[in-house]
Amino acid sequence: MLERHNRGTRVRPRRRRYVARLLLAVLLLVLAFLVGVAFARTLDEQVEPGGVVTNVRTLTPLPQEPPARTVTVTVTSP
Question: Has residue 50 got a pLDDT over 90?
């Protein structure tokens, strides 16, 4: 005839699968949350286009030598 199985041995594998699925679901939710937080942070840290950037530089003049000779030009009008 048919033998009856003990229910105690049959419950444990189901319980392990349930705990494993529950743990996997929790890990996936945590992973989705962390990806969402990372995505939000990258959106907040983006540089806004069209911003004005001002650079200020002070230029020092190069040293100049005095002219070698001076020329005077006189123009007479007709």
Answer: no
List of residues 6+ apart from 65 with CB closer than 8 A: none
Is residue 7 predicted with pLDDT exceeding 60? no
- Please report whether residue 28 resides in a domain: yes
The half-sphere exposure of 63 on its side-chain side, counting CA atoms within 13 A, is 1
pLDDT tens across 8-48, in order?
555 567 888 899 999 999 999 999 999 999 999 988 887 77
Q: Which domain holds residue 8?
A: 1-46
Query: Could you tell me if residue 24 is inside a domain?
Result: yes
Amino acid at 35: V
- DSSP one-letter code for 8: H
Distance separating alpha carbons of residues 35 and 40, to the nearest angstrom: 9
